[in-house]
Amino acid sequence: MNHFVSDAVVLTGRTLRHVTRSVDTIITTAITPIAMMLMFVYVFGGAIRTGAASYVDYMLPGILLVTIASGIAYTALRLFTDLQSGIFERFHAMPIARSSVLWAHVLTSLAANLISLVVVVGVALAIGFRSGAGVLGWLAVVGILLLFTLALTWIAVIAGLSAKTAEGGGAFSYPLIFLPFLSSAFVPTRTMPGPVRWFADHQPVTSIVNAIRDLLAQAPVGTGIWTALAWCVGILVVAFGFAMVVYRGKVS
């Protein structure tokens, strides 16, 4: 275990240096959600009724999930690039834990997405977002976001290992970015037509968005938070299992 941890730390440092040398990836990851947030707040926000809460407070949880979905595309791209360059084979020829090469990309994804999330929240605060949540509430929000990031990152790992082209490696993220628009992220689901509302009410993003929104608003979360956590853990377990199968097939 010590061998694995030390190898993973060193290799994570390598991939993090790649991110810091290409700051445009973090900027690009944050710019799209920020542009969406500004558009929804200042263009559509006045026409959308969300109750007593301001619209920026209402829609921020959805924007945070869009930020994560945008960021993991770069995880798949970095993984694909390493795979195609032959660096995986070079690392596997060294006396290091094989899985540490993969975990380095996963940990880098968590760090890079966390930076992007902080930037987006900072902009939200500048345009009027406010939350009365205490330390425990914010810790719960951060925990859900990191768990969601980890779940989507393992999906990105599958895409990065399976893709035939760099474009294909990142294209998988488009449906994930679009999914919040078919949820309660930007409008209440009660305003949607029947079949669309049924899908929105029963897909994972709605429960995750609602849990984060309630935590930030200090509203009772009830059993909704357990539904959100169940979705995150379920996606994580399934994606991790498939990713490891694909990874073993690549390195065997």
TrEMBL record:
Gene Ontology biological-process entries: response to antibiotic
GO cellular component, one term: ATP-binding cassette (ABC) transporter complex
Phylogenetic lineage: Bacteria, Bacillati, Actinomycetota, Actinomycetes, Kitasatosporales
Top-level taxon of origin: Bacteria
Protein name as catalogued: Transport permease protein
Keyword Transmembrane recorded: yes
Residue ranges constituting the ABC transmembrane type-2 domain according to the UniProt record: 24-250
Family that this chain belongs to: Belongs to the ABC-2 integral membrane protein family.
Record's subcellular location: Cell membrane; Membrane
Annotated source species: Mangrovactinospora gilvigrisea
Transmembrane regions listed in the UniProt entry: 26-48, 60-80, 101-129, 135-159, 171-189, 225-247
Keywords assigned by UniProt, alphabetized: Antibiotic resistance, Cell membrane, Membrane, Transmembrane, Transmembrane helix, Transport
Molecular function in Gene Ontology: ABC-type transporter activity
Membrane topology: Multi-pass membrane protein
